[in-house]
Amino acid sequence: MIKLNNFLKNAALTLLFLAFSHNSFGMNVLASGSKDKTIKIWQQKYGQFKHIQTLDHESRGHTGWVISIACNKDGLLASGSHDKTIKIWQPNTNGTFEHIQTIDQNSGGHTGWVMSIAFNKEGLLVSGSRDRTIKIWKPNKNWKQNQKKPFEHIQTIDYDSSWGHIGPVKSIAFNKDGLLASGSHDRTIKIWKPNTDGKFEHIQTIDYDSSWGHTGWVMSIAFNKDGLLASGSWDNTIKIWKSNKNWKQNQKKPFEHIQTLDQTSGGHTDYITLIAFNKDGLLVSASFDKTIKIWKSNPNKNNQFEHIQTIDQNSGGHKGAVKSVTCNKDGLLVSGSYDNIIKIWKPTKDWKQNNEKPFECIQTIDQNSGGHTSAVRGIVSMLLGPNKFNQKLKNNTNYRNIKIITHEE
């Protein structure tokens, strides 16, 4: 183990699952999850990501596909799997992780594949599953001192008791105001409001019949910093939803449909698998059509999104369906595919002024560079900053201005 004082002098931290992660030391780390049942950890050195750790069954990892991952503000990593478990991983100061908790059926966990995971800014862990439920997990304060597990179950949202989904829950996301959105194979998006006890109640269902919703499975949802909700579906479309200000006072639904992005607007020709927003407000979408598409809102057209770039095999993209994309706070875009490959994309300088495409490929990670032997499934971004290091960071003049950034921000 590297001593903390020496580490603070020399290190900087980021993680990617496919996850990006920045920790408060500035070290860039990438975490990727795959159908090969492993999570791989990558550290960035001299502009390239190098493999430093594989979390597998022998290191108390998963026995099934790793299909979802998220990190909280303290740097804990949560992973969900086809083995029906959630695993919690604690970061070490050298960028590696160690297992600290397994959440299974015996501890209130899911009875089906864990398909989606997210943290909110208060530290609640939320998971969605093929068992058609959403589960809420509360962090245990001082869990190390009290010798407890980091998370305990406090709520199950299902169809029978809570207006929940009637299909597998494929995607979940939080907005800046704490609202929870969930997307499902039942073709609906549901919006949930937090109560003071950390539990959630249903306030809106977005479907095709009443709300201009999707006609296919809702595979991915994401919020931007301005509160817009975007959703991607197996109906090959992306839909944009505007938040209604003062929706409580006006007795309106929180979100209303404002735009549909389809083939006629430069969109995808096959299922949408994942969507994400970058720090500049660009919308990124991945699809079974083997492409990544970039969208920009146009202030001259009522902030409607317009297609500005397609990344395909001819432009250095993937040879297989693109399963996951994420963006980190420094502007890097990372993608994972059924071709078993991770690709890193750098924003081009002054692309607006020079009429260039926003992203260009700078690295390809495959089996020859320690990569996965099967499809790369998901991506999330965050900054690692364990609480126990905060005071030492504040006392170190080289790190006083570093901000901890979580996925929901």
Keywords:
409 residues, mainly beta, Methylamine Dehydrogenase, Chain H, 6-stranded mixed beta sheet, disordered N terminus, disordered C terminus
CATH topology label? Methylamine Dehydrogenase, Chain H
- Report the C-alpha radius of gyration, rounded: 20 Å
Count of separate DSSP helical elements: 5
Mean pLDDT: 85
Unreliable stretches (pLDDT < 50, length at least 5) are: 1-17, 380-409
Query: Alpha-carbon distance between the termini?
Result: 31 Å
SS-based class: mainly beta
Fraction of residues in helix: under 10%
Shape: globular
* Beta content: 35-45%
Major sheet characteristics: 6 strands, mixed
CATH architecture verdict? 7 Propeller
Specify the CATH homologous superfamily: YVTN repeat-like/Quinoprotein amine dehydrogenase
Number of structurally distinct domains: 1
The CATH class, by name, is: Mainly Beta
Structure explained in plain terms:
This protein is mostly beta strands and 409 residues long. The protein has a single domain, classed as Methylamine Dehydrogenase, Chain H. 7% of the residues lie in helices and 45% in strands. The protein is built from five helices and 30 strands. Strands 1, 2, 3, 4, 5 and 30 form a six-stranded mixed beta sheet that branches. A four-stranded antiparallel beta sheet has the order 6-7-8-9, with no helix packed on it. The chain has a four-stranded antiparallel beta sheet with strand order 10-11-12-13. The N terminus and C terminus are likely disordered.
